[in-house]
Structure formats: structure tokens, C-alpha cells
UniProtKB/TrEMBL annotation:
<dbReference type="GO" id="GO:0005654">
    <property type="term" value="C:nucleoplasm"/>
</dbReference>
<keyword id="KW-0238">DNA-binding</keyword>
<keyword id="KW-0779">Telomere</keyword>
<dbReference type="InterPro" id="IPR011564">
    <property type="entry name" value="Telomer_end-bd_POT1/Cdc13"/>
</dbReference>
<dbReference type="Pfam" id="PF16686">
    <property type="entry name" value="POT1PC"/>
</dbReference>
<dbReference type="Pfam" id="PF21375">
    <property type="entry name" value="POT1_C_insert"/>
</dbReference>
<dbReference type="InterPro" id="IPR032042">
    <property type="entry name" value="POT1PC"/>
</dbReference>
<dbReference type="GO" id="GO:0016233">
    <property type="term" value="P:telomere capping"/>
</dbReference>
<keyword id="KW-0539">Nucleus</keyword>
<dbReference type="GO" id="GO:0032210">
    <property type="term" value="P:regulation of telomere maintenance via telomerase"/>
</dbReference>
<feature type="domain" description="Telomeric single stranded DNA binding POT1/Cdc13">
    <location>
        <begin position="141"/>
        <end position="271"/>
    </location>
</feature>
<dbReference type="GO" id="GO:0098505">
    <property type="term" value="F:G-rich strand telomeric DNA binding"/>
</dbReference>
<dbReference type="InterPro" id="IPR028389">
    <property type="entry name" value="POT1"/>
</dbReference>
<dbReference type="GO" id="GO:0000783">
    <property type="term" value="C:nuclear telomere cap complex"/>
</dbReference>
<comment type="similarity">
    <text>Belongs to the telombin family.</text>
</comment>
<dbReference type="GO" id="GO:0010521">
    <property type="term" value="F:telomerase inhibitor activity"/>
</dbReference>
<protein>
    <recommendedName>
        <fullName>Protection of telomeres protein 1</fullName>
    </recommendedName>
</protein>
Length: 763
DNA sequence: TTAGGATTTG
């Protein structure tokens, strides 16, 4: 019996539970009965701390309340969990979870008299072949107009106002968040935690949050949310079309398709129902006398006095007005000296006061910040310097005033980094005007200076992975030479095709050199539908190398599904190592199984063996990746050939190995792009033909991973920033080879990029 | 406990 510890929803559970298992009620449990094919289901009502037995074995005890045993004399039972399973259970189990256990030993409970629970207890361990399923509770979300005083609820909301975590006058950090939702109600929440990381990671108005276990109270005639024990939050970018990636400090959370849908719906609602602030203010667009939020890079900081602290920041642009310089002792100024000098005309001084001082002191030089509600104060012109602008972050938290640290993954930070890198600092650098003492300082920090230059004035946004000894060749020379040859070049990327990056992914057969589009999901769905017509052959179930489970779906369209679990060492291995074959599954079912199990192979029955479906469908699914075979070159072999891999000592189920035994020639996912490169002497089109090396992103995963798509788009925006003049484009170091393409009509020389990769600090 | 939105006055 498999050992499984799952955090799944009830729907998934119903499709995953082996059909030979039958539910047993608590009152039928007896010490000497056979419980091999029985399972017990209940709710976790009590758990004890994880401990170790004398021999070092981990031990975890929980109390289960039987679902159908309410009102019976004994409705709860002790479950004793040993070894690794104890450790795993202690990590994921929470009170209220539905818990299913099979493969247990029933023993007389020595504590039944004292605790009043079942006369037997269950003993569970990996060694005993036990299986445990923990079914995450289905969360119910309350609309904001249906909140009741004194309840603890789960909810979604769009952030209408927020104060980033600040140091309260008590012991905790505090964050105030006002939410709205399509019920048109508003809820203000005051959230506390000793660790600001556990408060919602809200960066701007319009972000969407999901709160679990927030306590609702009435305050001044209005509902108010406050943190309860077990409060947890997820935060999402509220922009329509942005990747749905939760920001959270929680290690365990459930986030499924349904939640995905909710976020998308809320984004659409928010887009037309709340006013989301326009483009962020840059230093170049600062308006005197107003308040603004600034996304910036922390270059320096210094203590000023007890109630104020200085931050020196830069956002890649230059403020058009004279700005103040807050005088500080040189010894109090933290930051890279050379950088501070380099940026002296670009960065601005922001003086922060009172409650913000403690947080400001703790900031790390080099981090990316969003400073909310900075006051651009117009200083009077009565001193000798004339008028200038002062930047203050006043005390208090009115209007969300405060400081937030942004992670490097934040899209605004990525944009800022790209901007910082594109700025040419040569103009603001004036070595000649420095005193010799200043120059000494400068060169004592030479290494810092170098690393800084590398970061912001990247000599090349690509690097060669080989052939570094070669000298550059001008494009003009290359175009006037015969092919085939290899060259090192230094050029700029003027444009590239396709602009829609997902169109660059193709399937390539290395045997016949053919290229084809990646089939879309619909086609796969149709093939599955068609193959579901073939009735499963009962003689092909439960063979020497796989166990089969068959069931028929309820409802109008009855459908028979068979899953064949491939065995290893006479056992079906753990879920994450299991290869399964499925007959009669739908697209959705196949996808779900592929996410959970190691490999899924869609098959249908013939008279004497299972066989693969049409090769227009993927022959294998692993996680998010669908593997296809070349129709031209493959000669499918009987499925039973897979048993040779299953018999290996440690089957790794590599797609290439599976393809080989099944007679499939595996198609490779590749990026194919056309780069137009220029270097002042000429322009040529070079093809990029890459599976992973150039972007350091696997082509096989890009179509199903929005994070990777975003990463690739960011990379291209750095290689070829949109809307820039040629002079402002970065340089690319590339290795290219020329080759001849001839047909009856014409002869052409083509170029291909190879042994080149995007520089590490670009990706 | 803290804060409970609705700009400092340096």
C-alpha cells in the first residue's frame, strides 16, 4: 500500500483514493478483525507535540473524531504515528483537517478508561505500509457586506488604502489595511505581528489580499478586522493580466485553480471600480509642495539626531530642481564612498522622522525601497543658496506614510534596475575636479567601483561560454566572407522576432531536423475524448508490473476510467515517484494527475496490450511539461517494454529513456528567434536556436509558466529596451557561425548564435 | 497592548 501524505482538496481526494478501500466506522473497529482494505475517516480534533521515543523514533499522537459517529457513545479515537510519518504529519496537520488513514494496526488502548475514547487505538507508520491522506479544509470566503461581530472569517479584498508595517507603540509591528470588494462594502483591518514579514506584503493600492482567520469586531459602529491567532495572508498584484503569484511568508498554503479564478475576477472588478493610482512619480517629475511615493535604491544612510535619520536614494532619474543636502558627519555616513560620490548630483536626501527612524536605521544599503508619502517641501529662498526642495518623511503614519522594502522580484524593482543599468554615469563623473585626497578615497574603493560599474553600465549583457580568446570581427567583414566560418562579435540588438515571445517556442526533431508548432491543449482534449470511446480491456488490468484501478463516473455521460500504477520492487512507490498510465481520462484529469505523480502516459486498450494514443497528443506528461514524439521518425513499440525500466534498481523515469523503450523519437522544445544585430559597420540577421542555454530558461516550461514568461520578457527588455535610440542600447558579446543554405533556385548565407548566454546579473 | 486612515510644521 502506498505511503502518502497529501494536502489536497476533497475533489482530488475522491479521484485519488484507491477503489479497493472501504470506509470503516469507529464503532465497528475491533482488535482482531482484518482491516487491510479499510480506512478510517475523521476530523483532527486534538494533536499532541511531536516527541521522540526512547529509541529516537519520532512520535506524534492525534485524536480523531469520526465523521459518522456523532452521538454514539465513543466518537473519537487515539492515533499513534511513528517515524518519518510522525514528523511529516506534525508539519502539515491542523485542527479541523479531514484525516484519512488506511493500513493501520488496531491495538487495545491502555488509556481508554481515562480519556473516554475508543477502546482501541490505531498505530500508523511507514514501515507498516500505512497511508495517510490529509484533506485540507475547504475554505469559505465571506463577502465584506456579510461580516458579523465576533466571528473569525476568511475573506478576499482589494486594497483601497494601506499603511506599510510600522513600529507600533506596543511590542509589535502594525499595518492598517482598508479593503473593498464587489459587495461594495468596506472593511478596515488593523493587523499586528512581532515580525513584519508575517503582515501582508502590500506594495500598492489595488493589490489583492486573501486573509484567513481574521477576527471581525464592531468598532465605532463599523466592522473592523483584527489579527487572530492563526491569521495568514496572501497578497497578489492587482494588475489585470499580471502573473498570479502569491506573496506570503507562510510556508504552507493552499492555492488552487478556484482561487486563481477569484483573483482574476477581482482584478477585473477593481479595474473599473476603484481608482488605482497612475504611473509612479520619478525624481524627474517631482512637484514641489506635494506628497508622493518613490520607488528607489538606497545608496547611503546616516544618523542625524535622535529624532531624525537620513536616507540617500536614487531612482535613475534626475530631479530638475535644486535639492537640499542634509549636513552629516563623514564618519556617520554609511554606503560605498565612490558610489556616493558618483551619484552626488543624482541621488536625493530624504530626512525621516520619529517613528520611521528605527526602521530606517535597519535598512540595508543597496536595497530597493518604496517610500510612501514623501513631502517635497519648497524651502524659502531667504538663505544664500536660493530656493530648493527638501524631502521629508514626517513622523506619524497619516496617508500611509512609511517605508517598505521591495523584493528584487518585484516588477517595479526590475524596471528600476533596468533603468539604473541604462544610465550612463560618465557625465556626472568628474575626476579632474577631485582633490588628491578624494582621489585616494576613490581608488581605495576601486573594487566597489568596478562591481558597481559592472552592475549599472554592463559592458555586455551577454557573455561567451567558450572561445573567449578570439578577437571581435566587424559585421561588415563577416558579411563579405564565405561560409561556413565562426566569429566572435560585439553588436547591439536592434530588433528581434517574434515580438510575442511565446511564439518563439517550437518542437524540434533532431533526427529529421523538422520543426513544428507546439499543439494546443484543445487538440489533446479531442484525442483523449476520441480514445475514451475504446472500452478498457479487463485482461490488461493488474498485470505483473502494474496495479490497476477502474471506476465509472456517475452522471449522464458515463465514462470508464482506468489508472494503471506501475510497480517497483513489488510496491507502488510514493506518489512523486510513481508512473501511471490512464485510460479514458479527460484533459483536466490528466493534467491534475501529471502535477501530482511523477509521470502520466495516456493509453488505450487493444486486444493484447495497452498502446499510446495518436502522436499529435503528448505521449508523456511530467509536471507542467508535455512531451511529444516525432510522427515521422517514431515507431511505437508495445507498452510492456516499460516494464524493463520499472525493473531497474532506481528507475528515474527520464522522458528520453521512456521515449526510447517505447520507440518514440522525442521532440525537443526550442526557442527560435531572429536577432537583427548591428555594430556600426553593418547589420545581419542571426538565428537563436536554443533549448535552455541562452536565456537559462527551459523552453519546455515557458508555455505553462507565467513567471518564466515574465522573466524572459524582462531579459529581452534589457537586451533590447523598447523605445530606445541605438546609442542607448546595450552591447551583446556573441559567438556566431555562418552556414550555407542552398536550394535549386538560390543560395543564401545564414547565421546562428551559439555558445552565448545572457549575463548572470541580467536574468 | 499596539491602532482604530484623512499629511508636518523639523
Amino acid at each position: 500500500m502506498p505511503v502518502q501524505l497529501l494536502k489536497i482538496t476533497k475533489e482530488q481526494f475522491e479521484t485519488l483514493l484507491p477503489s479497493h478501500l472501504q470506509k470503516e466506522d469507529l464503532h465497528h473497529l475491533q482488535e482482531d478483525c482484518d482491516h487491510t482494505n479499510k480506512y478510517i475517516q475523521g476530523i483532527v480534533v486534538l494533536s499532541y507535540p511531536l516527541t521522540k521515543l526512547r529509541d529516537g523514533t519520532d512520535f506524534f499522537k492525534i485524536v480523531l473524531q469520526g465523521l459518522d459517529d456523532w452521538g454514539s457513545r465513543v466518537d473519537s479515537i487515539n492515533i499513534l504515528i511513528y517515524g518519518k510519518m510522525a514528523e511529516d504529519c506534525a508539519k502539515v496537520l491542523r485542527h479541523g483537517d479531514t484525516f484519512i488513514v488506511a493500513g493501520f494496526k488496531v491495538m487495545k488502548s491502555p488509556t481508554a478508561r481515562e480519556d473516554g475514547r475508543h477502546g482501541c487505538h490505531l498505530e500508523v507508520s511507514e514501515e507498516a505500509g500505512s497511508a495517510i491522506y490529509s484533506v485540507a479544509p475547504k475554505y469559505v470566503y465571506t463577502p465584506l457586506n456579510q461580516l458579523k461581530d465576533g466571528t473569525t472569517v476568511n475573506l478576499y479584498g482589494v486594497v483601497k488604502f494601506f499603511k506599510p508595517p510600522y513600529v507600533s507603540k506596543g511590542t509589535d509591528y502594525c499595518s492598517v489595511v482598508t479593503l473593498v470588494d464587489p459587495s461594495n462594502a468596506k472593511l478596515m483591518c488593523t493587523l499586528f505581528n512581532g515580525n513584519p514579514d508575517f503582515l501582508p506584503k502590500i506594495y500598492k493600492v489595488g493589490d489583492i489580499v486573501r486573509f484567513h482567520r481574521i477576527k471581525i469586531r464592531e468598532y465605532n459602529g463599523q466592522m473592523q478586522g483584527v489579527t487572530s491567532a492563526g491569521f495568514a495572508s496572501l497578497t497578489f498584484d492587482g494588475t489585470v493580466g499580471a502573473p498570479v503569484v502569491p506573496r506570503t511568508s507562510s510556508k504552507m498554503y493552499t492555492f488552487m485553480d478556484e482561487e486563481h479564478k477569484t483573483i482574476k475576477e477581482l482584478r477585473v472588478w477593481a479595474a473599473s471600480n476603484i481608482s488605482i493610482p497612475g504611473p509612479a512619480t520619478k525624481l524627474s517629475g517631482v512637484q514641489p509642495m506635494l506628497f508622493f511615493d518613490l520607488t528607489c535604491h538606497l545608496v547611503g544612510k546616516a544618523k542625524v539626531d535622535g529624532s531624525s535619520f537620513l536616507l540617500k536614494v536614487w531612482d535613475g532619474t534626475k530631479c530638475p530642481y535644486p535639492t537640499w543636502r542634509v549636513p552629516v558627519e563623514a564618519k556617520d555616513l554609511e554606503g560605498q564612498k565612490v558610489l556616493l560620490r558618483q551619484l552626488r548630483d543624482l541621488m536625493v536626501d530624504i530626512l525621516v522622522y520619529d517613528n520611521h527612524v528605527q526602521l530606517a536605521k535597519s535598512l540595508k544599503i543597496g536595497s530597493f525601497l518604496r517610500i510612501y508619502s514623501i513631502h517635497a517641501k519648497q524651502a524659502s529662498a531667504d538663505n544664500e543658496d536660493g530656493s530648493h526642495i527638501e524631502f521629508h518623511l514626517h513622523g506619524g503614519t497619516c496617508y500611509g506614510r512609511g517605508i517598505g522594502v521591495l523584493p528584487e522580484s518585484n516588477p517595479d524593482v526590475k524596471e528600476l534596475k533596468a533603468l539604473l543599468e541604462s544610465v550612463d554615469l560618465a557625465d556626472s563623473q568628474n575626476m579632474e575636479s577631485m582633490s588628491s585626497e578624494e582621489l585616494d578615497d576613490t581608488f581605495s574603493d576601486f573594487t566597489d567601483f568596478e562591481s558597481y560599474l559592472q552592475r549599472y553600465r554592463q559592458l555586455s549583457v551577454t557573455v561567451l561560454t567558450d572561445h573567449q580568446y578570439l578577437n571581435d570581427t566587424e559585421l561588415r567583414t563577416i558579411m563579405n566572407s564565405t561560409a561556413p566560418q565562426q566569429y566572435r562579435i560585439r553588436a547591439k540588438l536592434r530588433t528581434y522576432k517574434p515580438q510575442k515571445l511565446h511564439q518563439s517556442v517550437k518542437l524540434y526533431c533532431s533526427k529529421c531536423n523538422s520543426l513544428q508548432e507546439v499543439p494546443d491543449g484543445d487538440e489533446f482534449g479531442f484525442i483523449l475524448q476520441r480514445s475514451a470511446v475504446t472500452a478498457p480491456n479487463p485482461e490488461l488490468q493488474d498485470t505483473s508490473w502494474y496495479d490497476s484501478v477502474m471506476w465509472t463516473t456517475q452522471g449522464q455521460k458515463q465514462r470508464t476510467i482506468v489508472i494503471h500504477f506501475v510497480r517497483h520492487d513489488e510496491m507502488v512507490p510514493q506518489v512523486e515517484n510513481t508512473l501511471l498510465m490512464i485510460e479514458g481520462g479527460t484533459l483536466k484529469e490528466v493534467w491534475k494527475l501529471a502535477k501530482r505523480f511523477k509521470c502520466v502516459i495516456p493509453v488505450r486498450s487493444t486486444e493484447d496490450d495497452l498502446e499510446l494514443l495518436d502522436l499529435s497528443a503528448p505521449f508523456l506528461l511530467q509536471g507542467n511539461v508535455k512531451y511529444y514524439g516525432c510522427k515521422q521518425c517514431s515507431a511505437p513499440k508495445p507498452i510492456r517494454n516499460l516494464s524493463s525500466i520499472a525493473a531497474e534498481q532506481h528507475p528515474s523515469w527520464e522522458p528520453a529513456e521512456i521515449a526510447q523503450v517505447l520507440g518514440i523519437v522525442l521532440l525537443q522544445y526550442v526557442f527560435i528567434m531572429k536577432f537583427t544585430l548591428v555594430d556600426g559597420t553593418g547589420a545581419l540577421n542571426a538565428y537563436l536556436f536554443d533549448d535552455e542555454k541562452f536565456f537559462q530558461i527551459p523552453a519546455s516550461e515557458i508555455l505553462t509558466n507565467s513567471f518564466l514568461q515574465e522573466k524572459m520578457q524582462m531579459t529581452m527588455n534589457i537586451l533590447c529596451p523598447p523605445g530606445r535610440k541605438l546609442a542607448d542600447l546595450p552591447w551583446l558579446e556573441c559567438f556566431i557561425k555562418s552556414y550555407n543554405v542552398r536550394d535549386a533556385m538560390k543560395h543564401q548565407v545564414c547565421y546562428q548564435i551559439f555558445d552565448t548566454t545572457v549575463a548572470e546579473d541580467v536574468v
